[in-house]
Structure formats: C-alpha cells, structure tokens
Amino acid sequence: MKMHWSPRSPFVRKAMIAIHEMGLQDQVTCVRTVASPFKAHEELMDDNPLSKLPTLVLDDGTVVYDSHVICEYLDTLHTGPRLFPTVWPERLIALRNEALGDGLMDLGLLWLIERWRGEGMQSADLVTANARKVERVLARLEADVTLLADRPFDIGHLTIGTALGYLDFRFPFLEWRNGRPVLAAWHAGFLERPSVQANPVVDDS
Fold first, then answer.
1. How many CA atoms within 13 Å lie on the side-chain side of 126?
2. 54 φψ region: left (φ > 0), alpha (ψ -120 to 50), beta (else)
3. Do residues 143 and 136 lie in contact, with contact meaning Cβ atoms separated by under 8 Å?
4. Contact 28/21 with Cβ under 8 angstroms?
5. For the whole model, what pTM was predicted?
6. C-alpha to C-alpha distance for 60 and 62, rounded to whole angstroms
7. Phi-psi bin for 202: left (phi > 0), alpha (psi -120 to 50), beta?
8. What pLDDT is attached to residue 205?
9. Which of 20, 34, 56, 196 has the fewest CB atoms within 10 Å, counting from its CB?
10. 67: Cβ contacts below 8 Å, ≥ 6 apart
C-alpha cells in the first residue's frame, strides 16, 4: 500500500501511529507529499480530489481517505488488539473521543492558517474563537482524563494524544500542561508508547 504522507500533519501522524500499533508498518510505503491549504496539489488530487493528507492507495488501486476511514480499514487487517471496539457502548466512547481529538486538530489547523495570513488580513474574532474552543477542549480533557486512563487503548486515546502533540508542535506558547496535571501525566504515558516514539513530529519545511 502507498500513503501520501507528511511528518508535519497531525492526521498523518495519527494514521502512522495506528499503523505501528497494528504492526502493519512493513505493508505501507510512505510518499512525501506537500498539501497546502493555499494551493491545490494536482498530483495528489489524482488520488484524492480533496487534496488532503493522509491518503492511502491500496494495492488494487482503491483510494482510502480520511484518517478515520484509513485507520478503521487497516484495523481489519491485523490479528492484534483492535483500536476500534466492536461492542457498544465501548465503541461509542472510542468514536466520541476520536471526534474530540480530530476536532482539536481541526481547530489547531484553522488557527494556524489564520496566523499564516499577512498582517492586516487576520481575523481577530476567528483567532479568539479558536483559542477559546481549544481552551474548553483542554478543560474537558482534564476533567474526563480518568475515562481515558481506565479504558484499554483505542482510537480515541491515540487521536487525543496525537492532538495534544500537535499543540506542542504548533502552539508551544499555549503551555497547555499548566494547570492540567492529570492530563499532562496521561500524555506523558502516551509519549512512552513505542508507536508514538517511532513517529515523531518532524518539521522538514
């Protein structure tokens, strides 16, 4: 399989951590692909008209996107512990936590794009709104982190951990660990997982 890949994308990192958790890293070839929100990538759009990462191309030519669909599909290809629970309500909680992590990464990307705009072009209202939403997500995670700690590792843990790592990468000034000791301790454990250490964020811009 071939995956369009960038070491700076949090959604790609999510997929790569999942691939390592599943033991499938030898079955996926990564192709460095630059996907910018300001310019459509014509070759990438041959596989994914959204021009977004990650995009997985199967051996038979079938194209799979986005990160959720890629991870859930790959979770059917191995015999180890599943990242996607099959039994409700465990599956509901895992998917909800995944959505919260994905949403936090989306907020970060929107905020980053706005910061990249030239002087006088940024929307102060949008920046303020995104910052407030990120703050509320972090507060919810601090309050609910025991719900993560008391559950077997799944796609929800993986996505939330990846999203917090994205804040470290793009928004270090937030210092999100301050005042959130329980969440910080949980994330420290997440960072010790071999799959996470095998897939660090690399700024190769």
1. 13
2. beta
3. no
4. no
5. 0.94
6. 6
7. beta
8. 65
9. 34
10. 11, 12, 14, 15, 54, 102
- pLDDT averaged over every residue in the chain: 93
Span 112-138, mean pLDDT? 86
Coil, helix or strand at residue 70: helix
Reduced to 3 states (helix: H, G, I; strand: E, B; else coil), residue 64 is: strand
Report the C-alpha gap between 78 and 96 in whole angstroms: 23
* pLDDT band of 124, cuts 50, 70, 90: confident
Contacts 24+ apart (CB under 8 A), 187-193: 187/161, 190/157, 190/161, 190/164, 191/161, 191/165, 193/17, 193/21, 193/153
Size of the chain, expressed as the number of residues it contains: 205
Mean pLDDT along residues 86-97? 96
Check pLDDT > 90 for residue 102. Answer: yes
